[in-house]
Amino acid sequence: MRRHALSLLAGLFGALAAPLGLAAEAVLGVGDPAPAFTLPDQHGEPRSLSDYRGDWLVLYFYPKDDTPGCTTEACSFRDNINRLIAQDAAVLGVSMDSVASHAAFAKEYELPFPLLADPGGEVVERYGALSDYLVVKFAKRQTFIVDPEGRIAAIYRKVDPDAHVQDVLEDLKALSQPE
Predict the structure, then answer these.
(1) Looking at the annotation, which residues are catalytic?
(2) Per-residue pLDDT tens over the stretch 88-97
(3) Which of 42, 66, 80, 106 would be a feasible disulfide site paired with 111, CB 3.0-4.6 Å?
(4) Domains located in the chain, CATH noted
């Protein structure tokens, strides 16, 4: 009886919390296959996870173009792009903004990497990075490093825009070392 009551309460919490963005989401873990996607970049060109097979990929999700934290993070990736390329890593930014918004943001800050538009949030949700508060949805600030075989090699659920790229660079170096 007690187990049934707990199960009922858990189900009720899930039903009530889901619209508020509080429900437990499918959590990806290190070693899991990265969810496939194809999304348009800031030029309207389709970009797919499979395009990066054989390379390391830094896939970072962010809430909104041209906001302080998102601009800091994007410019930090921009400023370190040569160090990332030297580690055979590509960078993709993903938010729920439009292609046009991404185009303006990338142009204003001279971002040398693709920004992918996911206005419906389908890819954001598959990666467990969706915040849904009924009237507003946006991507959480999270990053995934995907290895050359398409598996998740590292996950950053709490990101400090000022220091994040340094953490990514250090982890890429450690991850790409032969065992």
Answers:
(1) 70
(2) 999 999 999 9
(3) 106
(4) 26-175 (3.40.30.10)
Rounded to 5 degrees, φ, ψ at 40 are: -75, 145
Position of tokens 């437990």? Answer: 24
Between CA 117 and CA 94 the distance in angstroms is 6
- Determine contact, residues 123/38, Cβ cutoff 8 Å: no
The tens digit of pLDDT for each residue in 7-62 reads: 333 343 344 444 444 444 558 999 999 999 999 999 999 999 999 999 999 999 99
A 10 A CB-CB count for 86 gives 12
Amino acid at 119: P
Both structure tokens of 17:
């919390």
* H-helix or E-strand spanning residue 57: strand 56-61
Q: Distance (Å, rounded) from C-alpha 34 to C-alpha 57?
A: 10
Q: What are phi and psi of 170, to 5 degrees?
A: -65, -45
Give the list of residues 6+ apart from residue 38 with CB closer than 8 angstroms, or none.
46, 47, 48, 49
**Angstrom distance (rounded) from CA 42 to CA 39:** 10
Q: What 8-state DSSP symbol labels residue 162?
A: T
